[in-house]
Amino acid sequence: MIKRRKGNPEERFWNSVEIRNDDECWIWKNYCSAKGYGQFHVINDDRTSTHWQAHRFAWSVKYGEIPEGLLVCHHCDNPGCINPKHLFLGTNQDNMNDRNNKGRQAKPKGSKNGFSKLTENQVIEIKMLISSRRFIYPEIAKMFDVSRSTIGAIASGQNWSWLDRT
Q1: Positive or negative: CA dihedral 87, 92, 95, 99
Q2: Is the distance from CB of 66 to CB of 72 less than 8 angstroms?
Q3: In terms of DSSP H, where are the helices of 8-166?
Q4: Exposure on the CB side of residue 81, measured as CA atoms within 13 A
Q5: How far apart are CA 43 and CA 47, in angstroms?
Q6: Tens digits of per-residue pLDDT, 45-87?
Q7: Which residues is 49 bridged to in the sheet?
Q8: Could you tell me where the beta strands, DSSP code E, fall in 37-106?
Q9: Is 60:66 a contact under the CB 8 Å cutoff?
Q10: Which of 12, 71, 127, 131 could serve as a FRET partner for 18 with CA atoms 20 to 30 Å apart?
């Protein structure tokens, strides 16, 4: 059975928001997803429940229906913000372009990083050579045409730490 939440959904929604000045982030005070996006449920007239991300609900209340296929994106890059002035509609590509323009894209790991001189298999081999203690770092570095400091960073776990030693 769906628990009926009391009060007008819009009223309940805004009671869950820390509203600040117009130019500041308005923070969602209730449950958030693991990625920090506010979560909100509305009980419909037919007693079914509709799940909303709080920023999408805020957009729809302020500006109307969200066209199919569009995202509600954040100018402020704060997933817990629901200030309608900080939100904009865009495609997934628009959202990625916004992220990239702000320098927030994830850096690719390992050999997928364009600056990497080593592959995952080479790093596993380097880790095995380090643990064998048969070679010193400069010798291993020479074998793989990398610097001694690269070998040291692999050995200390500063680089490539996500690869298991085998």
Answers
A1: positive
A2: yes
A3: 9-14, 54-63, 92-101, 120-132, 137-144, 148-156
A4: 19
A5: 6
A6: 888 889 999 999 999 999 999 999 999 999 999 999 999 999 9
A7: 43
A8: 39-43, 49-53, 71-74, 87-90
A9: yes
A10: 71
Domain boundaries, the chain: 9-101, 110-156
Domain 9-101 is found in CATH 3.90.75.20 = yes
Is 0.70 topped by the overall pTM?
Answer: no
The residue to which tokens 């199919």 are assigned: 68
Q: What are phi and psi of 59, to 5 degrees?
A: -60, -50
User: Cα dihedral sign for 55, 61, 63, 65?
Assistant: positive
The type of residue at 8 is N
pLDDT digits (tens, 9 = 90+) for 21-45: 999 999 999 999 999 999 999 888 8
